[in-house]
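User: For a benchmark we're assembling, each entry needs the component sequences followed by a predicted structure for the full assembly. Here are entry 17's components. Please fill in the structure.
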Amino acid sequence: MPIDINALLKSLEATGLATKIRESVFLFPMIESTHVIGLALVFGTIAIIDLRLLGLASTQRPFQRMASDILKWTWAAFAMTAVTGALMFITNAPVYYHNFFFRTKMLLLVLTGINMLVFELTAGRTIHGWDQAPSAPPAGKAVAALSLVMWIGIIFMGRLIGFTTSRAAVAPPPAAGVNFEDFLQGTPNSSGGTSTTPPPNK
Amino acid sequence: MVKQFAEWLSTTSPSVFIQNHNGWVIPTIQSIHIIGIAVVLGSVFMIYLRILGWAGMDQTLRQTTSRFGPWLTGGLYLMLATGVLMVIGEPVRELVTFSFWLKMFLVAVSTVFAAAFQVSLRKHEQRWEETLIKRRSIQGLAILTFLIWVCIIILGRLIAYDHIWGPWSPATKA
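Assistant: Structure for entry 17:
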């Protein structure tokens, strides 16, 4: 029996938890802030490891020592972003699910996972040979460079989701041929105007 | 007065340019700003972990700050540059908020803290490595300053939701 994904998304959105987050003034901004703190630590710590693999920083320190020092924090921070990300997702599940940037971000996350697996199967197997060397063998360097590029992509996609999924942004466009002057006049508050609907999360 | 300045700034040509290319310029600047945050938070995090003895114990404190200090400074400059661009692009959204000014105050506080720490470490290197780093008060201070960085990130996000401050937010007084 095929799963009706749209019904599932709608029921996620209708859960008590999702409703509670949507109706609260504080919850969504706080969850989003926690997501940013988590991702800053994920990317910050992964970059330290990747730069070490590339031979661009911390080249004097044994790789394994650094990995065991740092990666547990990366995983803790990643768990933080996963939980907060899921909480944001359920508040507006059908819209996020069909959003191009959300899908691209999820795809990039899967690719970073595969990238990690590739590392384990290549440079990870010979780690004892290069642990003290200033950089990893070519396969390890390639994984590190890809990791940096993909994580930067994930950050960009994440921010674009906020610009394309808020209730204001997904509302039907006013008319073809939008003139920017119309937006600039009107209310001086560019982030939401005077209505009672929450401003877009940009 | 801030509001008048913000409204004037929004009529200047750099601001109008960003507004006219709003679709991609603002998200791009914000994303680079977030990458800056990651560099800053990652760097201070490693220094705090070293002070607390939770990571990098094969390195001295001085080695740790030499590794991450320049990245912290670089990240702060990147954030300053992209932050200025965001203010130019959306002056009213940024400047006419409570969150923005509280954030700027905390940024000033933590930058002074970080600079004072660097200067003190350079002057009293041995004392830092041998005794100061083990002191409870120093470790408490490290946790406190890390929490200030966390608050800075929260306030940065709250600029978009300034109405949650209620009467404290100038944005709610239309």
